[in-house]
Each structure stands twice: as C-alpha cells, then as structure tokens.
Amino acid sequence: MNYRELGNTGIMISEVSFGTWAIGGAWGKTDDTGALKSLDYAIGQGVNFFDTADVYGDGHSEELLAKAAKGKQDQIYIATKFCRQGDIFDPQNYSYEKVSSYCEDSLRRLNREAIDLYQIHCPATEILKDGQVFEVLDRLQREGKIRHYGVSVETVEEGLICLEHPNVKSLQIIFNMFRQKPLEKLIPEAYQKGVGLLIRLPLASGLLTGKFTADHVFEADDHRRFNENGEAFNVGETFAGLGFSKGVELADQLKWIAVGRKSMASAALRWILDQKEITCIIPGFKNIKQVEDNLTALETKAFSEEEKQVIERFYQESVKDFIRGPY
What we know:
By secondary structure, the protein is an alpha/beta fold. It contains 13 helices and ten strands. Residues 16-313 form the NADP-dependent oxidoreductase domain.
C-alpha cells in the first residue's frame, strides 16, 4: 500500500481507500457478513481510511465500521458526514445544537471518542456561502469531538467557497474520466492550500468498469435505478451526471485504456492516482472480490502524457456536454 498525507493534517492515509455507501444501502441487496469480511480483508491489505455517513443505511455503515475496526481504532481513520438527515436548505439544520447531536449519534455508532474527519454532506450552496456552519465545526473541534473537518461538495463553485475557510482540511469531490472539470481550477487550488482531496465516484457508479450494456436493469432499491435522472438527490451522484445509456456508449469508447493494464476499472482508478494532487480514491464495494479489484490500481501502469491528452480531448469533445446538473 502507498500512503499520502491528508492535506496538511499530518495524517497519512492509503491512496486506495474505501467508501461504505454500498454496504449501508441504496446499492441493491446488502450482506453484513460479506461486508465485514471485505472490511477485514481491506484492513489486512493496508487500507487505513474509510468514508461513511450517518445516512448510509440510517447509520448502519457506521456500525459496521465500528465492528471492523474494533481493537484497531488507533490504526484506522474514519471519515463520516452529516446534515442530510435534515433539510439541507434550512440554516437551523447546521446550528450548534443540531450538528452536535448528529456528531454524538455518529460517535456512538462508531464507538469512538472523536471523529477523525467530520464532513458536511453536500449542503446547499447558500449554507456554505453563509459560513456559520464552519464556526460550529470549529467549536466541536475545540471540544475534542472531531479532529479535523471537511466538506463533500457537488460543484466546483462550492469547493472554491470552502477553500476560503482555513480550517477546512479536505474536500470530497466527484472526479473521474467523465468528470474532469475540477482539474481546471479546484484541484490545483486545493493542493496549493494544503487541502486534501478525497475522490468519490471514481468509476462513475460502475460505468468505468466497462461491464454494463445499455439493457442492464438495476435492482429497485439501487440508486442507479431510482436516481438516474436526479429523482431522489443530485443527479451528479449517479453515473457522474450522465444518462445510463449514454454513459455505457461513452465507456465503450474508453475501453482502450485497459490495453496493457489489469482491467478497465483499474486503469480508470490509476488515471486518478496519477494526479499528484489527489489524496485518495474511495470506491465502493460489497464483497472481497470488489476490494481486490480496486486494489489492483496500485499495480497498474501509469498513463503517459500522450494518453492523458487523449483522455482530456475525449472529455472536452465527447463527454462534458452530456453531463446533467450543475458541476
């Protein structure tokens, strides 16, 4: 395993880490036994950072992480998130009383005395512009309930707003071969300011595995079925904002990236890790096989400058005009 510093916090985290939305819920059938075995396997491979949220299975993924990290709390860093249990547009949802309550609930489920990284979970843009939530997080930090805090954002604009606040130590962003806009301004500015970058949806909800055909049908409780067009939450959180059939078409055009590499998925992850500014990727998983597959990115051949230019042109000419929603 390779490790990179989380911004300027001094914390070294595995460059391939994992998100736990899929084992909590909203990605089809879940299996706690398989999830715990997968977490244990990942930890055994040197993964020391996991991302979760209080709404993943209504806190269930936090509880699973507590079980997996039992006896290893000092070795495993956990990032969790808050605000989406309430109205993300209501300023009262970000009051000290409310956030403190969210924090205490997460601490109880995680069985921890402090949260390593506490993140605002894709709040409304106006909340970030107002900025009072950062004062609340400063207070929780002074109280010792959280060690560091960051923000999971939907857009480049939101990320840039967060960078104006010096105690924001990380940004969690959507970034992959289909979502390259952050490379223009947000990623370099975050790196220059010593802010860590956690990459969610590195495989665009599975599109960049190259395994789907346009006629694939997802399970009813999988967000890739019920949120394809943003029916339940931000459209960018599903297939990086692309419609499924268009995403499959574009993924087919990228299959060349697997040539000379372990797989299309490992190549797509490697491309992200080739950006020196990135702290880590946090792909999801449901079983040991998926953990193993994601870890192959560590051994996958880096991209040449010529290949990177081809991928950038592909995004500019064939992809960006089909992404729905603000990003």
